[in-house]
Amino acid sequence: MPTEPWLSRTPAPEAAARVFCFPFPGLGASAYRHWPDRIAGAELCRVQPPGREARRGEEHYGTYEAFAARAAEALLPLLDRPFALLGHSTGALQAFALTVHLVRRRLPLPERLFVSGQVAPHQGPWGPLLRMSDAQLVTEIGRLTRAMGGVESLGTIRAGLPVLRADVTAAQRYSVQLPVPLPVGVHAIGWRDDDQVPPERMAGWAACSARGAFRSVTLPGGHHAFLDPPPRLLAELAHEIDRFTGDSDQHHIDELSQRRAVARPEVTHRSRAAGA
């Protein structure tokens, strides 16, 4: 099983299900260091994108389309059992782009797409982070470092700013003109005190979900509450994971076959220059 460089540790071969977790902008797999290794029997697989942390010597992925293609190739051997994709902030867009790629290539699809603290792709790019100067991003790095329980330092800022700027640029350039209805259930998680993405701005994700399979919830906390997951968030995820890990293997096989028969979504993108 592949462990390097896309995942922070070797996946357990006996896991009944997997949840692939995509990080907060500026971070890698460490964004999930305070999370449990399993939720409701599903193993959490912390994704490490190129250009940061253990992969800081590699070139940044550049665009979400390029990221999705590379991630799909690397993770495909691990999509041999029920799985979900989970992302917060720009990580939600990475998870969405990967799902679109899997649909278009008729590859195994996630049982759920969990998105937190992010507007739907066809309603973006949006958010204060995308309009920040380098000086403002330095302040954001400090907030993020403290939210993760660390101490900000000159070294942290020097290492974090180029990564965060590259992640912001990728988000600025990614936009889907029309809603893309995926054959996947979408679960949108908003945060009541989120000063970056108010929960009411997440309603557009309903148009991306399979019919009758959209769920949304607003939890107490701000934008960074996701990094140290509150019990209500873990309970919400566990409830949804139980819904598909409890299915029989044959049901899962039949469902995958039906999904692969669905025509690929037509996705039209428009690019915006950095800083737009």
From TrEMBL:
Domain of life, per lineage: Bacteria
| Ranges where the Thioesterase domain occurs | 18-232
Q: Which family does it belong to?
A: Belongs to the thioesterase family.
Which PANTHER family is this protein grouped with? S-ACYL FATTY ACID SYNTHASE THIOESTERASE, MEDIUM CHAIN, THIOESTERASE
User: What protein name is recorded for this chain?
Assistant: Thioesterase domain-containing protein
Recorded source organism is Streptomyces siamensis
